């Protein structure tokens, strides 16, 4: 294995306005919307911790104080639960505050994902780091981030997570031009295109919200002009890194992910995620799944009556 500095820190951008979920997100950060009984952002932090990253920097903005409160101790609540002898809920409340060493920095203005990542420079320093986007949840049974960190340790450079999608979906994502390596699930990135038209996409492999970045990305981001939407795009910085020599922190690899990913970035996908998680919970599934089947049956029957 090559002698590269180990990845020890995770950066979680969480400064978005959550406009797709208004009015629910008028006063509540979208990252705090629950997936069953845990906020979506906790699943993301748990993923980082499971990959060995216990130093987590959250990039926040205005009206995000509840995120900090969630990962802090709640002494009054804990004492009330202890007095009731409710050990199960006490453990659940303590779990989030015991997960990791949490740090916070504010992104003063919403200037894009690239700018949010650049806000982490002082905390990260001259070390490689992982970036986990809160809208993407990876099933805990799929060790994507651990695999990406392993690839970074073996090859250096930066690493992005890739998923294959139908051609008509590539225009909603950053898309990668790739070439193979000696490992089936690892490719080298030769170009990145942000939200290309379907007929201009270099492949069907899109970037999903997991990155392991070489610290060289900070210097590149500093010089990266605003791109699509007037924002500083992380994709543009990674394209530059892909063209740079490894000795300067360049080269970008992709890990092909074929596992389970949940998108909580829009209402329909969020609802699907909640249903899937509830359906796999042993404490909920025995009652929830029969109810769901009956609901669908009634819904289909009503549609049949209306359509006749």
Automatic annotation (TrEMBL):
**What family does the Swiss-Prot or TrEMBL record give for this protein?**
Belongs to the UDPGP type 2 family.
InterPro entries under this entry? GalU_uridylyltTrfase_bac/arc (IPR005771), NTP_transferase_dom (IPR005835), Nucleotide-diphossugar_trans (IPR029044)
- Gene3D superfamilies recorded: Spore Coat Polysaccharide Biosynthesis Protein SpsA, Chain A
Per its UniProt entry, what is the enzyme's top EC class, as one word?
transferase
Catalysed reaction(s)? alpha-D-glucose 1-phosphate + UTP + H(+) = UDP-alpha-D-glucose + diphosphate
Domain Nucleotidyl transferase: where? 9-271
Q: What is the protein name for this chain?
A: UTP--glucose-1-phosphate uridylyltransferase
Q: What GO annotations for molecular function exist for this entry? A: nucleotidyltransferase activity
EC number(s) for this protein?
Answer: 2.7.7.9
Query: Which organism encodes this protein?
Result: Actinomadura miaoliensis
Q: Which UniProt keywords apply?
A: Nucleotidyltransferase, Transferase
CDD domains, from UniProt? UGPase_prokaryotic (cd02541)
């Amino acid at each position: 294995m090559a002698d590269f500095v180990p990845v020890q820190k995770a950066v979680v951008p969480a400064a978005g306005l959550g406009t797709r979920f208004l009015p629910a997100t008028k006063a509540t950060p979208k990252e705090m919307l629950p997936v069953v009984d845990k906020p979506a952002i906790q699943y993301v932090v748990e993923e980082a911790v499971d990959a060995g990253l216990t130093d987590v920097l959250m990039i926040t903005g205005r009206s995000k104080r509840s995120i900090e409160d969630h990962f802090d101790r709640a002494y009054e609540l804990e004492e009330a639960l202890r007095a009731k002898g409710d050990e199960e809920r006490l453990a659940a409340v303590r779990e989030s505050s015991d997960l990791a060493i949490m740090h916070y920095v504010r992104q003063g203005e919403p200037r894009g994902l690239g700018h949010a990542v650049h806000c982490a420079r002082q905390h990260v320093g001259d070390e490689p780091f992982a970036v986990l986007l809160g809208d993407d949840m990876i099933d805990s049974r799929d060790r994507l981030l651990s695999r990406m960190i392993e690839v970074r340790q073996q090859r250096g450079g930066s690493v992005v997570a890739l998923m294959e999608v139908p051609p008509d979906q590539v225009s909603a994502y950053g898309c990668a031009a790739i070439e193979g390596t000696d490992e089936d699930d690892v490719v080298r990135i030769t170009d990145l295109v942000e939200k290309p038209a379907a007929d201009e996409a270099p492949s069907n492999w899109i970037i999903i919200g997991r990155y392991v970045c070489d610290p060289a990305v900070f210097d590149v981001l500093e010089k990266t002009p605003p791109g699509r939407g007037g924002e500083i795009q992380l994709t543009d910085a990674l394209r530059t890194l892909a063209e740079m020599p490894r000795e300067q922190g360049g080269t970008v690899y992709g890990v092909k992910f074929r596992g389970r990913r949940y998108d909580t970035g829009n209402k329909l996908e969020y609802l699907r995620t909640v249903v899937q998680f509830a359906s796999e919970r042993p404490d909920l599934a025995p009652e929830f799944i029969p109810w769901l089947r009956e609901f669908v049956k009634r819904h289909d029957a009503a549609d049949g009556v209306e359509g006749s």
